[in-house]
Amino acid sequence: MKFNTKAIHGGQHHEKVTGAVMPPVFQTSTFAQVSPGQPVGEYEYSRAANPTRQALEDALASIENGVRGLAFASGLAATDCLLRLFKAGDEIIAMDDLYGGTYRLFTRLYKDSGIKFHFVDMNDLEGFQKLINENTKLVWVETPTNPLMKLADIAAIAQITKKHNILFAVDNTFATPYLQKPLDLGADIVMHSATKYLGGHSDVIAGALVIKDKTLGDELHFKQFATGGTLGPMDSFLVLRGIKTLHLRVQRHCENGEKVAEFLQNHPKVERVYYPGLENHPFHEIAKKQMIGGFGGMVTFTFKSGAKQDAISFLEKLKVFTLAESLGGVESLANHPALMTHASIPEDKRKEVGITDDLVRLSVGVEDAEDLIEDLKQALA
Fold first, then answer.
1. What is the pLDDT of residue 15?
2. Which of 62, 88, 109, 191 is most deeply packed, by most CB within 10 A?
3. What are the tens digits of pLDDT across the range 41-93?
4. 211 and 193, same structural domain?
5. What HEC string does 177-219 produce?
6. CATH number at residue 262
């Protein structure tokens, strides 16, 4: 089954009782039992499993080519569940450019756990391998990264992690499974902030893990059940609805993203554009190899002046783009990472990786590209 068909039908079945084409929203906390310990059907309590959430989880596994999907209350809840696999003394190697919430989770919530985190340039494979030791248990990668659009070669990293028997997780939020399939490239786990492209309509907060190995999937499900970070049935329904149009939306995101990136690259006030589809992007060749079908709708850029105030003035003048956090919805959004999504990262660390005060991140939506470019033009003027 090809992707477009999977997005609509993958892992899905008509509802058994009524034949409903879309899974109903089973807004229930518990399920009847005929005798103690003998439920009427396969469900007992919605924290453990719920039919609507199960439909979403089956769809997630299908589109990522995994054996098990798990749906969480947020992307950070999904990441937190994964981290519960590890104990004091374990070490995790992570990419140096990460979503601010992930960095905050790693460095603040887990700072007293005894788990040691290393943040490295994942394109320096030699330097990355030097950090590996008997305590290394996980490699965590975003590709493309938030917000600098760095890429990592998933297949090359997977060869290394397999050699050392280390788990390898990829945050696939920006690329989506329509463009990139980390499990096929050798990763063990995929994480999504399903709030973004999977949901696609800026109306839900959700997260997901998709796992390649059944035993690992069962272990993570137990941790999810025991800690309770599950996604509710209505939110599960909304994300599942979003997945059914994922392929259509991402096609337009890619088309518009490329046009916006090219416009910005030729604008006299713009210093640098970060977009994997541009030939001058430092990781364009990696993008061509592992992002199949397009380069996404995320575009980041800086100003020739290097001035923070220029970025702020530009953002305040936008009319079609909305100044707001988040990304991946049908509407175009604009964001100032240093003051918004990445404010939780210390200033010196931001500057170290290249998140400057004049950096602007755009989530290019599915509107008419001409209107988006006119909006950028007037705001830059």
1. 86
2. 191
3. 899 999 999 999 999 999 999 999 999 999 999 999 999 999 999 999 999 99
4. yes
5. HHHCCCCCCCCCEEEEECCCCCCCCCCCCCEEEEECCHHHHHH
6. 3.90.1150.10
